[in-house]
């Protein structure tokens, strides 16, 4: 059973590893290409190895799943149906990091019975630590954060839209007939979730994320008062190991308007779920 002191230790493990890695100093980095076509650096491996060892030393009975593990190992951990396991994205936004674009972060979540129990996302460039404990709120550098509950129209919002993974009619409509005021996509899912939670972005849509991309950030958004689902309206949780789409907004009213617009403009979704 975890308590507040344990979660403080976990935050310290992540932040210490990040600071020892030197990733706050962005610049051109040597990269390798993984089988799925994504970029990886030695820093990804350093952070995963460092954080996983520290977690294992303190909680040896809790399995660990990291992005840089073999796919078969990842699947085995999820399919084992253990009551708890860790999931880590050691460096989300690796392409940004490797090119010196200062937007990337580290994300760790504790999964319990298919739901995120605790999540932390650390932004080394801005020294911002977002975290949440299920049922106990969301925080940024130890200050509670809450989303705006009312008073914002869809057309007044800034949206984070990942067009790369949105195909067909929906991507076309978002480009030609956007329902929001402005659009951004900065290339690090774990931080984008947190920027919705902190109100810097009001809407979010992404066509496909892995568990380590959304586990911590979605908990932080939920605890801050935000609302989210998949593009088909299903619950976004950690019970299955498949890529999941994501739709989110800072409050329920905006979420309903945003989800309705996306659904009406996505012919694939209309066919999948009447």
Q: How would you describe what is shown here?
A:
By secondary structure, the protein is an alpha+beta fold. It folds into two domains: 4-144, Fructose-1,6-Bisphosphatase, Chain A, domain 1, CATH 3.30.540; 154-272, 3-Layer(aba) Sandwich (D-Maltodextrin-Binding Protein, domain 2). Helices cover 37% and strands 25% of the residues. It has nine helices and 14 strands. The protein has a seven-stranded mixed sheet with strand order 3-4-5-6-7-8-9, sandwiched between helices. Strands 11-10-12-14-13 form a five-stranded mixed sheet, with helices on both faces. Helix 6 packs parallel to helix 7 (211-224). The model is unreliable at 270-274 (pLDDT under 50).
List the helices and strands and how they pair.
Blueprint: H1 4-21, E1 32-33, E2 39-40, H2 42-58, E3 64-66, H3 71-79, E4 84-92, H4 94-99, E5 105-112, E6 115-123, E7 128-133, E8 137-140, E9 143-145, E10 158-161, H5 168-176, E11 182-184, H6 189-197, E12 203-209, H7 211-224, E13 227-229, E14 244-249, H8 252-264, H9 267-272
Parallel strand pairs: 3-4, 10-11, 10-12
Antiparallel strand pairs: 1-2, 4-5, 5-6, 6-7, 7-8, 8-9, 12-14, 13-14
Helix pairs in contact: 1-2, 6-7
């Amino acid at each position: 059973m975890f308590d507040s002191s344990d979660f403080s230790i976990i935050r310290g493990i992540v932040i210490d590893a990040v600071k020892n890695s030197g990733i706050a100093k962005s610049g051109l980095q040597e990269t390798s290409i993984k089988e799925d076509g994504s970029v990886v650096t030695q820093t990804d491996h350093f952070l995963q190895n460092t954080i996983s060892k520290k977690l294992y030393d303190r909680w040896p009975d809790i399995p660990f799943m990291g992005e840089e593990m073999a796919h078969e190992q990842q699947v085995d951990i999820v399919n084992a149906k253990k009551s708890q396991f860790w999931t880590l994205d050691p460096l989300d936004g690796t392409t940004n990091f490797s090119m010196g674009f200062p937007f990337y972060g580290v994300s760790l979540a504790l999964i319990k019975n298919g739901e995120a129990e605790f999540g932390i996302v650390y932004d080394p460039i801005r020294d911002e630590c977002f975290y949440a404990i299920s049922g106990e709120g969301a925080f940024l550098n130890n200050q509670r954060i809450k989303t705006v509950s009312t008073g914002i129209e869809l057309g007044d919002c800034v949206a984070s839209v990942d067009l790369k993974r949105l195909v067909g009619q929906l991507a076309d409509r978002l480009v030609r007939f956007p329902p929001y005021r402005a659009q951004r996509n900065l290339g690090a899912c774990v931080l984008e979730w947190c920027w919705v939670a902190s109100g810097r972005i009001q809407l979010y849509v992404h066509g496909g994320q892995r568990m380590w991309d959304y586990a911590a950030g979605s908990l932080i958004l939920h605890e801050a008062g935000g609302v989210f689902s998949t593009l088909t309206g299903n619950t976004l949780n950690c019970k299955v190991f498949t890529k999941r789409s994501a739709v989110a907004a800072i409050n329920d009213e905006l979420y309903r308007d945003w989800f309705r617009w996306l659904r009406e403009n996505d012919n694939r979704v209309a066919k999948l779920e009447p």
